[in-house]
Amino acid sequence: MDTENNSIIGKKKTEEFNHLLRSNKLKVTQPRLRVLEIVSTKTAAISQPELEKLLGADIDRVTLYRILASFEEKGILHKIFDLNGTATYAICSTKCTEHHHHDQHVHFICSVCNSVYCLNEISLPKINLPSNFSLHSIAINAVGLCKNCQSEVQ
Ligand SMILES: [Zn+2]
Ligand SMILES: [Zn+2]
Ligand SMILES: [Zn+2]
């Protein structure tokens, strides 16, 4: 389970997030900071309902929806669909910019707990397209057992 950040890490993170928001021309607001804080402490991608649960009454549903949409548009978060087709969100690589995602990595989805992980270290294969086809993005999902579910099986 997630442990609370100690205050030094917490402070450094907040500065980082302030910078991230400002460099994307987004006003620094408490709800935006809270969302970034939660997403960045998770090892797996997180869905809107999960975020709602963690945020409690801090942010209403419409605000959260708008925050996620703007973060996705700005290249701060990318969206991955889990096995139920629910959208989950993970933090982007620094290469992502407005309207331009460069998260070219494999996503691992656990068939037991449905957690989505970004496998940043695995690069995608080169796709040789037929002539006159042009490539915009590649999405590869690997499905199997995650570390936590694996250890329960053994
Ligand atoms: Zn991205
Ligand atoms: Zn699992
Ligand atoms: Zn990812």
From TrEMBL:
It holds the Pfam family FUR. It comes from the Bacteria. InterPro entries: FUR (IPR002481), WH-like_DNA-bd_sf (IPR036388), WH_DNA-bd_sf (IPR036390). SUPFAM superfamilies: Winged helix' DNA-binding domain (SSF46785). Signal peptide: none annotated. This is Fur family transcriptional regulator. It comes from Sphingobacterium pedocola.
